[in-house]
Design goal:
The structure is a homodimer of 413-residue chains. Chain A has 2 domains: 226 residues, Spore Coat Polysaccharide Biosynthesis Protein SpsA, Chain A (Alpha-Beta Complex); 130 residues, Rossmann fold (3-Layer(aba) Sandwich), CATH 3.40.50.360. Chain A has 15 helices and 16 strands. The radius of gyration of chain A is 24 Å and the shape is elongated. The two termini of chain A are 26 Å apart. In chain A, helix 5 crosses helix 7. Chain A has 413 residues and is an alpha/beta fold. In chain A, 37% of the residues lie in helices and 23% in strands. In chain A, the strands form 4 sheets. Chain A has a 7-stranded mixed sheet, sandwiched between helices. The first copy, chain A, has a 5-stranded parallel sheet with strand order 13-12-14-15-16, sandwiched between helices. Chain A has a two-stranded antiparallel sheet with strand order 2-3. In chain A, helix 4 links the parallel strand 4 and strand 5. At the A-B interface, strand 7, strand 8, strand 9, strand 10 and helix 9 of A face strand 7, strand 8, strand 9, strand 10 and helix 9 of B. Strand 10 of chain A pairs antiparallel with strand 8 of chain B, so a sheet runs across the interface.
């Protein structure tokens, strides 16, 4: 796991960074959601993403289109947008939604503070929606806020668990080959039925793959393909790699993806997504501390211990707390020195309150306090202990579960 | 929803019954798990099922083979066996497990009281396991407890949500065509990669289907195919329909299955399965009452009301309670008349205790009592109310949540 130095500005999520792409200094780039193009000396391509989100979700068997189905009260598409937003080198994200869902989508963007999103109207089919998204990015469009990217990622609104590393792989492969897509082994054997619903033949499973998302293309390759393609393609086709092959004669590079890339299709997939999100929440903790040297040592001890139990342990001195909260970290260990009077914890509680994070799910904060046993009188100690209980009572009203932990300072160091 | 008459012996689960197969009197048959052949005048085929359960579950990313992974503390395969056991016309169920898991499997059969199960040793591949299962059913085997069926169902241990209607469809189609299998639309486009991991071609999604389970075969068709097939088939093949086509020249009839047929493959599928099982538990209620006429009327009122909220409402006079408990009904409404002194409720509580059902998940029992307000003195009424609280205290120790409901008898009727 890659972690930034405490007090520094390490990447928000572990995984390969843009330096893997073109040798650019991406650690700095990834530390904020600033536009990729603004980074000096960076030779990575300008990248945009298009998300068709006009589907009706008829396979789900529920009236709400699946991309808007709530998971822990938050719409599925918001998780997907967050996954893309975490990747600082994706400059623009174009979402195609139907006219009737336009206001819903705007509400989601506002509520969850999504950035870099542009909305276009979805077409009646998946391909038409993607085409609309590409048109918005093409140079000849009047919408001057957007500019034509070198590489465009196409992803599904209903694949919320896409990670930066697979996005990086398809973008890199698209730069080299013109087109690229994630694939997975087939779970079931694929068969061809005859007209009378009998088996005509079955395909040898090992020779085929399931084509998944994300896919990436040199913008001109896929845009040219869409401009040439037939009404039949636009109506009945679903596969962008096929269009790139048929019209731009580009054989896409195929990249093995992780099982996480699966598409939320059926109701059971919503259940699975919810469990995965809950599991991730429980596996993610942020240790907040100021930059005093003593604490840094404590922070590292704590980090090492937590890492034996949890997947995502982040230590911060507090500068990037806003970003960490935005990325749905629900567990915090906040280290204060006794003399600082809960300053760090109070600051964190204020930020959490402003973020509305705890509306969705309770946030757990453990406020750690160091105490030099010999130099502080007992009365003062107890006063502090009672103070945290008052804080906790107030915090609980806002769904923040605050606990205090008192540590005898000299014993620890 | 099909429901048996109150006090009668209706089918344990809704859905088409064997009368749909051959006009046999299946309601009676389905009311118990008695062997199909024992039913008089029934012309339906002798049916057995083979479940390969020798997989290692490497795609799951967990050390336990997926068929043994616990869902609500109960192994996945036990749910699948239960789904097959509910179908009274399946005579024998052959499970192929590896030698190292043989004792585990025996333990599961004993703990969850599975019936009609025979174990055979799994081969190193799926096809070899199925072949071993078929051999055990073939006439020339020394194991005389089993006899050769006319039709054999092949199902996966990791598809726990198979319903009787699809089993009926594949068995009926196999009788007519020699072979049959459930299919589903493809979720992803299927592509063929070239040797250098580039796209060679993509398949038109609408022209192909995913081959799922269950499948059914005339026993001789599939057994002959397995006897002829090559080592290569046995090592690298996975598709029984393909073997029936290649060696027995039978084009299987394809039957559209429901989304429930999906295979538990990844960890996320375990999450989904758990949520589905929990949802089913919450949607299933059994109303227990004795056969007094008054109560029958009440029972029907209650049934109608409950059916507006819940999917599975069963009314019983108590004879088949054992079976209902075995089928994991966790919610009971038990109707007593005041004079009978909680007899029905006490009997139900005793049976629940014996069944160990509540080890897995809390069982909810609402004990309903009718009271002729005018004829019973207040003191006696309160005595009864206190009595249910004592029962509830005891029941709670065994994870049974008992509530009492007192209804003024004359007002209701």
């Amino acid at each position: 796991m890659e972690l930034g130095p405490p007090g520094g500005s390490g990447p928000a999520e572990p995984g390969p960074r843009l330096r893997g792409l073109r040798g650019a200094d991406a650690a700095a780039s990834a530390s904020s959601l600033s536009r990729f193009g603004a980074e000096a000396g960076c030779r990575a391509p300008a990248v945009a993403a298009v998300l068709p989100a006009g589907g009706s979700g008829e396979r789900m068997g529920v009236p709400t289109p699946k991309q808007f189905c709530p998971i822990l009260e938050r719409p599925l598409i918001s998780y997907t947008l967050q996954a893309l937003e975490r990747v600082s080198w994706i400059k623009d994200i174009i979402v195609a939604v139907t006219r009737e869902n336009m206001e819903t989508m705007k509400g989601i963007i506002q509520r969850y503070q999504h950035k870099r999103i542009s909305l276009v109207e979805a077409g009646v089919t998946r391909h038409r929606s993607i085409f609309n998204g590409l048109k918005a990015l093409a140079e000849d469009q009047p919408n001057c806020r957007l500019s034509k990217p070198e590489v465009v990622i196409i992803h599904d609104a209903v694949r919320p668990f896409v990670e930066e590393d697979v996005l990086l792989k398809v973008v890199t492969a698209a730069q080299e080959h013109g087109a690229s897509g994630a694939i997975r082994p087939l779970v079931s054997t694929v068969i061809s039925p005859s007209a009378d619903s009998c088996l005509d033949h079955s395909l040898e499973r090992a020779r085929y793959r399931a084509s998944e998302m994300p896919q990436a293309f040199l913008f001109d390759v896929i845009y040219d393909a869409y401009q040439q393609c037939s009404d039949y393609d636009l109506e009945f086709g679903t596969e962008c790699l096929h269009l790139a092959l048929k019209y731009s004669h580009i054989k896409a590079k195929l990249v093995e993806g992780s099982p996480d890339l699966w598409k939320v299709t059926y109701k059971r997939d919503l259940y699975a997504a919810e469990s995965i999100i809950k599991e991730r929440i429980s596996q993610k903790v942020c240790v907040v501390m100021d930059t005093k040297e003593d604490e840094e040592h404590v922070g590292h001890c704590l980090e090492e211990m937590l890492k034996t139990e949890l997947n995502h342990v982040k230590v911060t001195s507090g500068q990037d707390l806003q970003q960490i909260i935005l990325e749905q970290c629900y567990n915090f260990v906040c280290v204060n020195v006794m003399t600082s009077d809960f300053e760090e914890t109070q600051r964190l509680l204020n930020m959490l309150e402003e973020s509305n994070l705890s509306i969705l799910y309770p946030v757990v904060v453990i406020s750690v306090h160091f105490l030099d046993y010999e130099s502080v009188p007992l009365g003062q100690k107890m006063e502090k202990v009672m103070q945290i209980r008052e804080f906790a009572k107030e915090a609980k009203k806002r769904n923040i579960l605050l606990s205090g932990l008192l540590i005898y300072f000299p014993q620890l160091l």
